[in-house]
Amino acid sequence: xxxxxxxxxxxxxxxxxxxxxxxxxxxxxxxxxxxxxxxxxxxxxxxxxxxxxxxxxxxxxxxxxxxxxxxxxxxxxxxxxxxxxxxxxxxxxxxxxxxxxxxxxxxxxxxxxxxxxxxxxxxxxxxxxxxxxxxxxxxxxxxxxxxxxxxxxxxxxxxxxxxxxxxxxxxxxxxxxxxxxxxxxxxxxxxxxxxxxxxxxxxxxxxxxxxxxxxxxxxxxxxxxxxxxxxxxxxxxxxxxxxxxxxxxxxxxxxxxxxxxxxxxxxxxxxxxxxxxxxxxxxxxxxxxxxxxxxxxxxxxxxxxxxxxxxxxxxxxxxxxxxxxxxxxxxxxxxxxxxxxxxxxxxxxxxxxxxxxxxxxxxxxxxxxxxxxxxxxxxxxxxxxxxxxxxxxxxxxxxxxxxxxxxxxxxxxxxxxxxxxxxxxxxxxxxxxxxxxxxxxxxxxxxxxxxxxxxxxxxxxxxxxxxxxxxxxxxxxxxxxxxxxxxxxxxxxxxxxxxxxxxxxxxxxxxxxxxxxxxxxxxxxxxxxxxxxxxxxxxxxxx
Length: 543
Known about the structure:
The protein has 20 helices and 25 strands. With 543 residues, it is of the alpha+beta class. Helix 1 (20-35) crosses helix 2 and helix 12 (351-361) crosses helix 14 (404-416). 37% of the residues lie in helices and 20% in strands.
């Protein structure tokens, strides 16, 4: 069996044997599935093993009563149970199929509303009801059945797509053995002999795509240093399916292939302004998370120093700019499944991980994300934060092997010279210190990065010996200064500038964090230092 996902949930038989509590939890799942794309609930499966318990037996009467009870706890939810089934060991289970609620909002009997996002059932607040209406239409847009019969489609289009899937390394063996029509049904392109909206997007004619509510349309605009438009490309004719459109954009967007050149010994090092895989992921994200119920173009705007990509529709429920690195929620799951199996994108939820990793390896900033109700805009800088980091990063690439998380953390630490663990956790959108360990523990263990201080006050920086070994010409910074050296600097500063406030000392030591100077000064009071005044008027001097 597969793991839980957008439209599949596994529940223990105890859910229908423990009274009202279990039934209310099942009702919430049914409502959430109905408000998204429908789905299947496997009753009688152990949550961890994802299979029935040994020797499990279900009476027909028990199943009938459970389904009747569940129906009474849901409004605007159409559900039906399969016959009692057996797995290979003979253990019994059954499947509840929940149909999507296309025209109404499903609720529990006590008026609560839920929606299925990725593999979770999220509650909907009253203030989000308007947004739910929009999101429901978007989630279900893919699977809406059209009046275009499968017999009317161009068989060559279906054959090409089916073969692309069949020969993909990511396609499961049982999928590869399906015929063309079975593959189209499996990926929700066909429903009961008719194309779905998703099917029209991939298999339809130009006219059929144009008749969809809002198919994929794109504008590509290049600006000069003064903000003037110097080139424009448009894709408004609906001639291409999503894969063809993606490849055509990449072929014509030549400005995204421009590079920087840097001296590298006797040779020159070339780094693209935008890594090709970063561009691919950003474009795929715009396609995959676009709201197909909003009339607007995907905009690709290329400025001399940045790339901006915007797509119609705000972020899906549960996703914000502060958790997008770890959020696994998706708006068009079946479109994403196709992009994934066609090897056009990373796995679900891993696209931004890849973007962070590639930017870290090239000393670039991670993309900035801006979201409103009608639009998501992603801004990726072209610039390298510090070109003197490149020899260090090249040295590390050549001599060490890191996990993706390790590269992401290492790139940020190198870029910042020295960073507090709390600041790193914030950039990585982590809320628990334990989760940060998965990014940095091996780097510390292998002596790639060093740590000073303890717990939340600890600071991280690249091992100076590695900088020396890489022959990097990184400018000396007071950011990584040792505590004893900082104390000596403060003593020398106050010898030259007695009766100074901490803010004045910091101005004369510009690379050192205010927090570090403050903590050091406080620790020196009564020993090396004394002071006059109170609070904001306090000044310090040598004893």
